[in-house]
């Protein structure tokens, strides 16, 4: 018999990082799922960590940028949004306040994209929906 809390969704964060030029920062994924697709910087929340702290940490780890959270954009909870299983993402709209773009252990490339450029980019997960909700697509 499965107990009520034996199977629960995982929690992630994603950062929609706006630049001063109105662009958005995306990372090219190095690993599956969605290897070689562009995605919002983000990742799993660690035990004992707030979603806000996780967002700041993941944004820095994956892009080299220090960011400031402007506001909560939304919570994305479709059970099919991630092929690894039920993963809920808390998404924040952020602004870069320091650092410089650099690749990471998990990314092949980090790049700023204009709204026009986003039309030709294959995005991972449900990140096209998130960017649409943020006003980028």
Tell me briefly what this model is.
The protein has 137 residues and is an alpha+beta fold.
Describe the structure.
The chain has a single domain (10-133), classed as Nucleoside Triphosphate Pyrophosphohydrolase (Alpha-Beta Complex), CATH 3.90.79. The chain has three helices and seven strands, in the order ββββαβββαα. 29% of the residues are buried. It is globular and about 45 Å long. The chain has helices at 51-63, 115-118, 127-133; strands spanning 10-18, 24-29, 38-39, 42-44, 65-76, 87-99, 107-113.
Main features:
alpha+beta; 3-stranded antiparallel sheet; Nucleoside Triphosphate Pyrophosphohydrolase; 137 residues; 3 helices
CATH class term: Alpha Beta
Q: What is the number of helical segments per DSSP (H or I, 4+ residues)? A: 3
**Main sheet strand line-up:** 4-1-6-5
Compute the separation of the termini in Å. Answer: 45 Å
Return the average pLDDT rounded to an integer. Answer: 94
The dominant shape is globular
